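Pasting as-is:
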Amino acid sequence: MRMFHKIFLCFVVLFSITFQGAGFFLLQFAYENAVAQERKYALQVFQYNKYVLQSQMLNQAEYEAKQFTSKVAVFDAKGESLISTLQGEKLWKLQNEDTICFRTSEVDGVFYIYVYGGVKQNHQTVYLVTETDITQIVEQQRQEQAFFHRIFILILVLAFPIIWVLSRYFTKNIELVNNVAKKIAAGDYSQRIAFVGNDEIGELARNFNHMAETVEQKVNQLSHEARAKEDFVANFAHEIKTPMTSVIGYADLIYQKELSKEQVKSSAEYILNEALRLEALSQKLMDLFVLQKQDFTLERTNFREFFLDIQADLQMVCKMKEVEIKLEIEPGDVLLDWDLCKMMIMNIVDNSLKAGCKNITIKGCCEGGGYKLCLTDDGKGIPPTEIPRVTEAFYMVDKSRSRKQHGAGLGMALVAKAAQIHGASLQLESDGATGTSVILVFERGQQS
């Protein structure tokens, strides 16, 4: 059964029980009040007839029914009838003469209130019973009940549309949530609940929208990671296939044919270059795997001391390419892993060298609540449209140039992962013509 039907039936049942219950107690209250009034009147009749009976007993006269103001019955102490004008023969349970009792009975469709009690006079005790007709009260109650039932049916018929509208009002928002949930379950994660209220349904809608946003983000993240893994496998297979094909081809050429010394040397050079590419690719993949799996302990380190330690290595790799490097590093403490940070800096510099730069500048300074490190070169740069993809594994802006220099497109992927481990933000800026700036912002703080 749907929620709408449940609410509708609950409204109808609750309304019916409430209305009928209130009507029953109201009619019963009115009836009991009317009967109570009749009992008072019946008691007055009994008292008057008691005086009449006492007068007859005092005068020791015969009991005369016409002197009584209502239908009566008189019994002696043994229960034998002395006089009776009541409807039908009745058996009365004799009571103590000082007790007055009431009883309501129906005789041939007529309702009476009987009042009976003892009467003492001249050392004689008899019992008097008086009869009062209350049929009108009972009939009036029946008429009121019948009228009430007609009113109830009329009001229920009139209330049906109102209850229907209220039920639809209370369930339409739930139905809306259900419809949106069905669409999300079908794969449309962009669906959101439009209405906003301040009640529990509104709160449910807000929480549902928040959940839907989280689910959409997680699904997009998983989809992106799945595509990234597929691209990684495809690119890896491609990068392996090219050098392996060259190695196998030239090795087979040397093995199968008689070649001159120069031809053998040339073939061996091709094999060596491709082997170096495979070695670089293997090393980069191993570094990337280590970054994914290993837990690093960050220690509080002064950045100037760090660069003084790696300065000789930086100058050596730059001197081999005839590139001038300039360091402008201010003192500042950050939390870092020494070897991991060195690998990150060396990869950035290596990318600059492969871009054909002649000058590299590394500046470091405290800025705000962090430490900003900027590495700038004057190489070929990166097209602005390509910048978002630079940190993807195996992505190369200039594939032919990278392969000649034994590149595999993993350098900036390693940099991005290392920056993430350090809790640093990574930003690349380039116009695609006059060089590239790589900006790292480290958080400063005490070691936990």
